[in-house]
Amino acid sequence: MEARIAVLPGDGIGPEVMAEAVKVLERVAEVYGHTFVFQEGLIGGVAIERTGRPLPDEVLATCKASDAVLLAAVGDPKYDDPTLKVRPEQGLLALRKGLGVFANLRPVKLYQELLHASTLKPEVIAGVDLVVVRELTGGIYFGQRGRKRVNGTEAAYDTMLYTVPEVERVVRLAFELARQRRKKVTSVDKANVLESSRLWRETAERVASEYPDVEFESMYVDIAAMRLVRYPSVFDVVVTGNMFGDILTDEAAMIAGSIGMLPSAALGEGKPGLYEPIHGSAPKYAGLDVANPIATILSAAMLLRYSLGLEEEATAVETAVGTVLKQGYRTRDIAEEGTQVVGTREMGDLIADRI
Question: pTM for this one?
Answer without folding.
Answer: 0.90
